Amino acid sequence: MSELRVVAPVPGVVHAIGQVPDPVFAEQIVGPGIAIAPDHVARLDVVAPCDGVVGALHPHAFALEVDGGRSVLVHLGIDTVRLAGLGFTLHVRRGEAVRAGQRLVTFSPVDVAASGMSTVCPVVALQADPALVVLDAEPGSRVAAGDPLLTWR
Question: What is the pTM of this model?
Answer without folding.
Answer: 0.97
